[in-house]
Specification:
The structure holds two protein chains of two kinds. Chain A is an alpha+beta fold. Chain A contains two helices and five strands; from the N terminus they run βββααββ. The longest helix of chain A is centred in the middle third of the chain and has 15 residues. In chain B, strands 3, 4, 5, 6, 7, 8, 9, 10 and 11 form a nine-stranded antiparallel beta sheet that branches. The chains are: A alpha+beta, B mainly beta.
Chain lengths: 111, 151
Amino acid sequence: MLVMSRREGDTILIGDEIEIVISHIGRSKVKVGIRAPRTVPVIAREVKLVRDQNLAAATGPLSSPGLTSLLSRLKPASGAAPGESRKAPVSPVLQRNGKPARQYKIGEKSG
Amino acid sequence: MSSFETKNFGTVSYETGSVLEFPRGLPGFEDRRRFLALQFADSKPLVFLQSLEDSGLCFITLPILAADPEYRLEISPEDREVVGLPLAATLQIGADVLCLTVLSLEETGPTANLLAPVVVNISNLKAVQAIAPDSHYSHQQALLPQETVAC
């Protein structure tokens, strides 16, 4: 990796079309300006990590032996409470205006 | 009540007031804005984030404190603005915000994205996947000790 020392206000060129300006050096952060053609995507590395992770998560299955094993660790007395249908949805989570959410109702699974 | 046909759960009926709104979508899914948070008796405490715009899009998530009881939420000013959270306030998970971590089911076991939790403002149900600034958290935190995983 090429390492350069630069002062505030200095510029680095990558090829003919990409310019990187060291716009501000703070105590623990550096502000960097980047000028690049629109065709060159510029994103922070962690955004790409999260995007790739989301794409992988969304295309995977919704269950796995590992997930089952995780669930049994999270609730040692696993399974539905007596009288509670295993597939019955538990209303989660939230309702606007602080009102308790009503139960979700789920119909017959089609197909 | 409205209803939506999902690929994984059949028809789901819901109140419009319970829809989570992601004003900027999620990284990789920027045009997916409306989700339901579903929980089922047999898979608690998992929360399934089901898209209302794509019947097949569903993320498996876990309340982040179930994945890491010590988790410290950091959220950038930009992300606070997206969901209408005050810039300076300390946010309490469970009281001010719902905080979910997206799981990936890898062959080696489930992992949690602790780098970028889904943060929901409880007062308006606006949500953002907030990449923690200056974070040491992993986007692929293993949730099971490796030797216990059955593949």
